[in-house]
Amino acid sequence: MTDARHQLIEYIGSDAVFHGDFTLTSGTKASYYVDLRRVSLDHRVAPLIGQVMLDLIAPIERVDAVGGLTMGADPIAAAILHQGAARGLSYDAFVVRKEPKDHGRGRQV
């Protein structure tokens, strides 16, 4: 396990995992809740996310862009872009909205 991955796991465990009584979006009850936004938007942790994700996608032959469903994927994609640039790599990013916009160009991606 890389040092960055170990540090990321430590941050997630200490800053993003909450114990108690929670109602999830599905209505299901849970005794814990993981809020990764707490770490993905943290200036100390974002670079670690970028490093770990770059290591995970390195074996993939061709990656042109990174992204996913907004809001959760936005800071992760940004972390990958920044760490990729630091390694001399070039990626584009994208975000996917749950619904197409009702204004502007009306795009969903």
UniProtKB/TrEMBL annotation:
Xref: InterPro entries: PRTase-like
Example of a GO biological process term: pyrimidine nucleotide biosynthetic process
GO MF term (any one): glycosyltransferase activity
Pathway membership: Pyrimidine metabolism; UMP biosynthesis via de novo pathway
Domain of life of the organism encoding this protein: Bacteria
Keywords in alphabetical order: Glycosyltransferase, Pyrimidine biosynthesis, Transferase
SUPFAM superfamilies in the record: PRTase-like
Keyword Lyase: no
Stated name of the protein: Orotate phosphoribosyltransferase
Organism: Rathayibacter rathayi (Corynebacterium rathayi)
